Amino acid sequence: MDSTKCIGCGICSKVCPGNMVGGKVLLMENRYPQLVDENNFSWKGCWRCEHCLAVCPTGAISIFGIDADDVSPKPSQLIKEDLSKLMKFRRSCRDFKKDEIPSDIIDEMLEVVSHVPTGGNNQGLEFSVVYTKEAMKHIYELYKGNQLSLFDDNNDFSELRIYDAPHLFIAHKALSERFKDGAISEINFATAYFELLANAYGFGTIISTYSAELLSKNKEILKYLKIPENHKIINVVGFGYPKYQYQRGIKKTKIINKIK
After folding, report:
1. For residues 27 and 35, what is the distance between their CA atoms, to the nearest angstrom?
2. Which structural domains are found in the chain, ordered by start?
3. How many helices (DSSP H) and strands (DSSP E) are in the chain?
4. DSSP string, 124-143
5. H-helix segments, 43-132
6. What is the pTM of this model?
7. Cα separations (Å) of 73 from 57, 110, 190, 252?
8. What is the Cα 2 distance to its own chain's centre?
9. Residue 156: which pLDDT band, with cuts at 50, 70 and 90?
10. What value, to the nearest 5°, has the Cα angle with vertex 192 and ends 168 and 158?
């Protein structure tokens, strides 16, 4: 903490989740914040969420070797309009170009999506990401060597439904009995964040729960994707350069129950 920047407002202490649930984590002493035990990662300890660093109005807080200059600045107000347009514009893509997305761009997207919210900031999520067409080809070979179908053999759903996407994103996590529903939500959050982010980069995406079910039944593929057998996968995201560009959004309606 930089005492030359600190104005003693105490906001960092007020937003600390550990403090809010009855812990004594970030305390104000002699006008300055003092972190009691940053290594005590627990419900009433430090959540390692960096809320204190993020909320400090003067950038005085440093934690875990990170200071205000190391993190992303606050987005402009334009994000409201741009994000609204993006959510209305995005479409499922089923026709991909054969070109691979450069690895550094995929790395960049994964660094962003690593900020997806998790319950209690537990950070238990893992991502398995296919970077190359060669790796995708190997997955198909493993699948065809032990082909399964969730439908009757006579229909056309006996193949993985990723539509030859050159890349694959899978969020997965171990499910505990106590926090099972929360873990499932985190997996879905990560999938939604990545899918929307990929569209923001101009890539096409296809979300498939069918593929997730097939892949989860193939131990060879799970091993190749470094997904532990006790981890749950709910959906996968195929992504790549879209073959066709959509020019506008569409109109959708939903039932909205307004409680006033």
Report:
1. 6
2. 11-70 (no CATH), 78-240 (3.40.109.10)
3. 9, 7
4. --EEEEE--HHHHHHHHHHH
5. 51-55, 78-89, 103-113
6. 0.85
7. 12, 18, 22, 34
8. 32
9. very low
10. 45
Instruction: At 115, list the tokens.
Output: 């900020």
pLDDT in tens, 112-152: 999 998 877 777 899 999 999 999 989 988 887 666 655 55
Alpha helices in the chain, H assignment, sequence order: 11-15, 17-20, 51-55, 78-89, 103-113, 133-145, 180-200, 209-216, 219-224
Q: Which amino acid is at 217?
A: K
Residue whose C-alpha is closest to residue 241's, from 102, 57, 125: 102
User: In the numeric block, which tokens belong to residue 195?
Assistant: 């899918």
Q: Which residue has the tokens 């057998």?
A: 229
